[in-house]
Design brief:
Elements (H helix, E strand, L loop, with lengths): L1 H13 L2 H11 L6 H34 L4 H8 L17 H4 L4 H16 L13 H5 L3 H11 L4 H4 L5 H12 L15 H11 L4 E5 L6 H13 L6 E5 L4 H14 L3 E2 L20 E4 L31 H11 L6 E7 L9 H9 L3 E6 L12 E7 L5 E3 L2 E3 L5 E6 L20 H15 L9 E2 L3 E5 H6 L21 H38 L1
Parallel strand pairs: 1-2, 1-4, 2-3, 4-5, 6-10
Antiparallel strand pairs: 5-7, 6-7, 8-9, 10-12, 11-12
């Protein structure tokens, strides 16, 4: 009996997302490209997750009807109405996992494509989530496809429902599988949980509207919703808006948000934010974003005719960094909007954007600049910066805190040394921010904001410093933290005369010892020669 228990525990331990995905890829070996494998497995995970959640909700509703002693006909009518399901996606009959899992291998391709069509036709909540005719086009061998479906069947939401971003985790798995080819500019990117949590900890998007102009697979929304849930307990208080230019990634975002029952507006199709703003004329309470780093070839004639950079001039065509900054500034509410986003460090001091950067600083739009450690991402090892823009630095009550007037000041932080938490088992070096580190960083920011803090003296060497407009002006309106944060010169404490004397003495001893060794070796050879003659 004890032997069986041990075996069960071993099996349970091996049931993890990585092993399931590895098995799926193994079954599809030679059947499809890596991108096709990704699309197939992501779609099956989506069908599995929404199907099981729907059927669990339906079972609870059926029991409620039975408790009220309704007739079977009344129960059937009740359960077939999509409007009855709150905060859960209504899944059409043809797309329900309990039906799909029992389909014979030879009929599975057609059944799955029928399921995708049923999802597309079911209404706005699921429209645009899936790639129609996917399974026919990929053309996987029936038995291999059945093995993959059986493997995905292990991903029960009861087991994996605690995942902050299940679709994102699967997406992340495939990014790691071909991270060499997945670049930030190509749109193949995933923002790790800890970085999203850090941004959320700074801007606190607890209520109102949240916008991401380059939302990718929607992971920023999912993880932010989890953060809000942990702090406030009600994700329905946040209404999300986003846009994504890649068709496949747009579908992932739709899947992700539909799975979680999060109210969302992503526009009717995938489209570049710079070419067509799906949310033109709207402004938002919060923005969280991780735009493509140093995006080239973004500029096209005519795209600057809107209001995005009316007061700041046209951003440099060399890369899109300042185009993203000005777009996001134009999308936060004029009296209270806050944006937290990541950019490559080059945006902090590049010469061609200096006039725009100067205007942003003088207009008190920049609140904080936080340089992050390297190796936080799977697809790039560069150090990046978290920017905080705030349209209200005047002070007052905000989320229960009494804030002072911070106009004319910017808080700089340098977290590049926070690399003491390496992630094990990865193919490349990667570090992760710990929860206590995120809390420490946000506490530094909140303490700087609050009434009673003197910005002129708010500093800790090698970590943070509050800087006024005059000093920024003297430094050419650069936002490079190392220009302002004090770094301790530990060499000044060294007694160089003493070190040089000790070094010279040590070298002398080494020379003396070497000479003695050479003399001893020579004597040994002489003695050996005499011995051989005898």
């Amino acid at each position: 009996m004890a032997k069986n228990i041990t075996k069960t525990k071993k099996e349970d331990k091996s049931l993890n997302l990585e092993s399931i995905l590895f098995n799926c890829r193994d079954y599809l070996r030679g059947s499809a490209s890596l991108n096709d494998k990704r699309d197939v497995i992501l779609t099956l995970v989506f069908l599995r997750f929404i199907g099981e959640k729907f059927e669990d909700a339906q079972a609870q509703m059926r029991q409620m009807c039975l408790d009220r002693e309704l007739s079977e006909e009344s129960i059937a009518n009740f359960l077939s109405s999509p409007a009855r399901y709150k905060n859960i996606v209504f899944v059409p009959e043809a797309a329900r996992w309990s039906n799909l899992i029992n389909v014979a291998p030879t009929a599975l391709t057609a059944a799955l494509d029928d399921a995708l069509q049923a999802i597309e036709d079911s209404g706005d909540a699921l429209k645009g989530c899936v790639k129609l005719s996917l399974f026919t086009n990929v053309n996987i061998q029936p038995n291999d496809l059945k093995k993959v479906v059986d493997e995905v069947n292990k991903i029960s939401h009861k087991t994996f429902g605690e995942e902050r971003d299940l679709i994102g985790r699967v997406y992340e798995y495939f990014l790691k599988s071909f991270a060499v080819n997945a670049t930030k500019e190509d749109g193949e990117f995933y923002t790790p949980h800890d970085i999203v949590e850090l941004i959320a900890a700074f801007i606190e998007p607890f209520d109102g509207t949240l916008y991401d102009p380059c939302c990718g697979s929607g992971g920023m929304f999912i993880q932010c919703a989890k953060y809000v849930e942990a702090k406030q307990g009600d994700i329905t208080a946040v209404n999300v808006f986003g846009q994504e230019k890649e068709d496949a990634t747009y579908r992932l975002a739709k899947m992700n948000l539909a799975m979680r029952g999060i109210s969302h507006h992503l526009g009717t199709c995938a489209y570049s934010t710079f070419e067509k703003d799906h949310h033109a004329g709207l402004t938002f309470d919060y923005i969280m974003a991780n735009p493509p780093f140093n995006l080239k070839h973004w500029f096209k004639p005519g795209i600057t005719e809107g209001v995005n950079w009316a007061d700041y001039g046209t951003p440099p065509e060399s890369n899109a960094n300042y185009a993203w900054i000005l777009h996001m500034l134009s999308k936060i509410k004029a009296d209270k909007g806050i944006a937290g986003f990541l950019l490559a460090n080059g945006a902090l001091g590049d010469d061609d954007a200096q006039p725009i950067r100067k205007a942003l600083i003088e207009n008190d739009k920049v609140e904080a600049i936080i340089v992050l450690p390297r190796e936080l991402f799977y697809t790039t090892d560069i150090s990046v910066t978290l920017w905080i823009l705030n349209n209200n630095k005047r002070g007052g009550l905000h989320h229960g805190r009494n804030l002072r007037d911070r106009r004319g000041e910017i808080l700089f932080m340098d977290l590049r040394s926070w690399t003491d938490n390496p992630v094990k088992g990865e193919q490349k070096k990667k570090v992760k921010l710990k929860s206590d580190q995120m809390k420490r960083a946000s506490d530094i920011y909140f303490r700087w904001q609050q009434v009673g803090t003197d910005g002129a003296t708010y500093a800790q060497p090698e970590l943070y410093r509050s800087v006024g407009l005059d000093e920024l002006d003297r430094n050419g309106f650069s936002l490079v933290p190392s220009r302002y944060i004090e770094f301790v010169d530990r060499d000044t404490a060294i007694d160089y005369d003493k070190v040089l004397t000790e070094t010279a003495e040590a070298v002398g001893e080494m020379i003396k010892l070497q000479k003695e060794n050479q003399e001893a070796l020579a004597n040994a050879f002489t003695s050996l020669g005499y011995a051989l003659k005898k």
